[in-house]
Amino acid sequence: MMHTTVGWHVEMEFREDDQRTQAVALVRLPDGTEVRAHGHASRHRTDANQPRVGEEIAGARALNELAMRLLTKAHEEIDQASGRTSHPIHV
């Protein structure tokens, strides 16, 4: 049986105007480090103004970048602990 020993909370913030949405994703790790990533979305001038759609796109892009930063961090920690260069971690 698995037990939860740690939990992560990801914070998302958005800034928007009529044409653009910017997102910032932040996770604070148990070791005290923070990993932050950004995403954006642009509305085409002929598209309807749907702020939620811009948030979803910008948020997804920020979360994707956050995932890649976490994979890179983990990969670097594996290399440091093992003293060798390991194979890259791919999604």
Q: What features would you describe in this structure?
A:
The chain is of the alpha+beta class and 91 residues long. The chain has one helix at residues 51-82, and strands spanning 10-16, 20-28, 34-42. The longest helix has 32 residues, at 51-82. The radius of gyration is 17 Å and the shape is elongated.
Instruction: Give the strand order, joined by hyphens, for the main sheet.
Output: 1-2-3
Tell me, briefly, the overall form.
Answer: elongated
Q: What is the helix tally?
A: 1
Helix content: 25-40%
Detail the topology: elements first, then pairings:
Elements: E1 10-16, E2 20-28, E3 34-42, H1 51-82
Antiparallel strand pairs: 1-2, 2-3
Task: List key phrases describing it.
3 strands, 27% strand, alpha+beta, 35% helix, 91 residues, 3-stranded antiparallel sheet
